[in-house]
Amino acid sequence: VVAEYIAELQASIQSATSSSLLLPQRPEDRAVMRLFIELCSSSFSYFPILRAREESKLDDAVETLKAGLEDVDAFLNKMGSEGGPFLFGNQFTLAECSVAPFVQRACIILPSGLGSGRSINPMELCDTCNLPRLKAWMKAVIDRPSVVGTGVPRDEMISNMEKMLKRFEAMEKEQTKQ
């Protein structure tokens, strides 16, 4: 809600061209954008992979991630615009702004093998599952200068996630004691 409010302010303050607005101009497109953000909020969930301690749970978590990626690819193919890599073609919108941190983290954390010990590369999953539209979208999002410039450096991101996983593990041990 706050991000959408800021995007609306940006549109009202500057005399932006439609390609530089974070919110699509048409109400239908804004609805598509909101649906896409909602879909991606669950589709890029990588925590079950990081927290899986048993091979069968890890396999299930990877399959769930694949299914989520397939859903996002299908959405992009059906609802997205052609002529560019983003949801609305060449227009980088609030859809990409909202999802970029999750995509960026998944593409850094999962290949590191952190948590589960298994290196899983979301870009390679796109190749394995034949998801070229999603792969192009993900690449365009994580390569976007504003995303790169506001992202957390790779080593720091991995270190922070490692600390978080250790805190979760300690909390779980404490709960089992009670």
Report on the architecture of this protein.
The protein is mainly α and about 180 residues long. Helix content is about 70%, strand content about 0%. The radius of gyration is 18 Å and the shape is globular. The protein starts with a helix and ends with a helix.
Features:
178 residues; mainly alpha; 9 helices
- In whole angstroms, the N-to-C terminal distance is 39 Å
Count of beta strands: 0
Unreliable stretches (pLDDT < 50, length at least 5) are: none
Portion of residues in beta strands equals under 5%
SS element count, helices = 9
Radius of gyration: 18 Å
Q: What percent of residues adopt helix (DSSP H or I)?
A: over 70%
- Overall geometric form: globular
Largest sheet: none
Give the SSE string: HHHHHHHHH
Global mean pLDDT: 90
Coarse structural class: mainly alpha
Short description:
With 178 residues, the chain is mostly helical.
